[in-house]
């Protein structure tokens, strides 16, 4: 198959005002694990990483237990600042409202419409259902600033009730970078307004997730920056008529052996999911090759921390190119003597085979190109 390499051409004109620094914070799952509450909480609120992709009745569905990278945006005049997760698997912007008195809202910044001279209210309600809970609220319009980009008349959700999962999240809300077809209540996503208002030089954004600490991660709007990757950027077409950032995967291999995706499969590239998620049986097979314990339920697989140096690469073969995840990318330490892999087995939907979350994106600088309907991947520095 032909190798596709992307030529940068005019995209290498940078502006600091078009990028949003991201902070790597603790996920709700990590916070609950530290308190010894995760297993009990998961039994009462089963974690479903597929939930956000199972849209029903105009309601966008997502999960937030496993997101960790967030950046700061502002809403209103004068601006009110919020920490939000930039999520390519959903399409709505929402933040807590001052009308919300749920414990989760009370633990975060809240938007006050009366303090903004440019806010426009609506009577349109919305509901976002999560794999571990829900939120409800109303839609409004206001000016939004993202990375120095002033977006006018942006629709966004003001939550009035939130599930307790959000209590543990370091982010206040979510900014969806998905497609308009997935936006709740007919809202126009922020990036679509950036494009239609002529605010970005190119109809794309790119994501770099640092592997070296809390700082250094960025979302760049309209730009590709070669300082974040080495070698070439490989162009991967989206699945035709896909409603998500979905691509075709040829196979998944370990030491040259096909261990999953035997006859080809699809995968969604999702900044709002921390793990690489796939069918339970196939993930069990991968984890077995890595020395993990097979699990029948939806959970992460435990491995010996001392064996990390001997574990093989897990290779995703995509559009004729190998994209390898080394052990340093897919193994994380959860306690002094306990490690787990970043491969999570779940009951996948009929149209989605795999989710390539942060475990994958940390390894590869990722460009999301709306104009050409492609994703571009380059080895992250």
In short:
Helices cover 11% and strands 40% of the residues. The chain is mainly beta and 381 residues long. It has 2 domains: 13-206, Acid Proteases (Cathepsin D, subunit A, domain 1, Beta Barrel); 227-380, Acid Proteases (Cathepsin D, subunit A, domain 1, Beta Barrel).
Structure explained in plain terms:
This protein has 2 domains: 194 residues, Beta Barrel (Cathepsin D, subunit A, domain 1), CATH 2.40.70.10; 154 residues, Beta Barrel (Cathepsin D, subunit A, domain 1), CATH 2.40.70. The strands form 3 sheets. Strands 13, 16, 17, 18, 21, 22 and 23 form a 7-stranded mixed β-sheet that branches. Strands 3-4-9-5-8-7 form a 6-stranded mixed barrel. A 4-stranded antiparallel β-sheet has the order 15-14-19-20. The protein is globular and about 60 Å long. Strand 21 and strand 22 form a beta hairpin. It starts with 18 loop residues before the first strand and ends with a strand. The protein is built from 7 helices and 25 strands. The longest helix has 10 residues. With 381 residues, it is mainly beta.
């Amino acid at each position: 198959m032909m190798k596709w390499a992307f030529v940068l051409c005019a995209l290498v004109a940078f502006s600091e005002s078009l990028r949003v620094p991201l902070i790597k914070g603790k996920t709700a799952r990590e916070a609950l694990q530290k308190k010894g509450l995760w297993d009990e909480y998961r039994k009462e609120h089963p974690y479903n990483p597929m939930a956000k992709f199972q849209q029903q009745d105009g309601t966008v569905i997502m999960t937030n237990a496993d997101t960790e990278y967030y950046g700061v945006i502002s809403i209103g005049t004068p601006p009110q600042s919020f920490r939000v997760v930039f999520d390519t698997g959903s399409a709505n912007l929402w933040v807590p409202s001052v009308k919300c008195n749920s414990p989760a809202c009370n633990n975060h910044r809240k938007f006050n419409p009366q303090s903004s001279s440019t806010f426009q209210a609506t009577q349109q309600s919305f509901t976002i259902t999560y794999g571990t809970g829900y939120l409800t609220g109303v839609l409004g319009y206001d000016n939004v600033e993202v990375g120095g980009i002033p977006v006018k008349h942006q629709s966004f959700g003001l939550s009035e009730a939130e599930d307790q999962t959000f209590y543990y999240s370091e982010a206040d809300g979510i900014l969806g970078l998905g497609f308009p077809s997935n936006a709740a209540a007919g809202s126009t996503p922020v990036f679509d307004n950036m494009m239609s208002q002529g605010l970005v030089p190119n109809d794309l954004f790119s994501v770099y997730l640092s592997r070296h600490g809390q700082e250094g991660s960025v979302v760049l709007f309209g730009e590709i920056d070669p300082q974040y990757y080495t070698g070439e950027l490989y162009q991967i077409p989206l699945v035709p008529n896909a409603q998500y950032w979905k691509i075709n995967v040829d196979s998944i291999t370990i030491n040259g052996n096909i261990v999953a995706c035997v006859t080809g499969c699809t995968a969604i590239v999702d900044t709002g999911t921390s793990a690489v998620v796939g069918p339970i049986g196939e993930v069990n097979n991968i984890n077995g090759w890595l020395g993990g314990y097979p699990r029948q339920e939806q959970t992460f697989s435990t491995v010996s921390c001392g064996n990390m140096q001997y574990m093989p690469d897990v290779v995703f073969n995509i559009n004729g190119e190998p994209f390898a995840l080394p052990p340093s990318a897919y193994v994380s330490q959860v306690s002094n003597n306990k490690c787990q892999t970043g491969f999570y087995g779940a009951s996948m939907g009929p149209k989605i085979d795999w989710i390539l979350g942060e475990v994958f994106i940390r390894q590869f600088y990722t460009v999301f190109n709306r104009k050409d309907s492609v994703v571009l991947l380059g080895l992250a520095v």
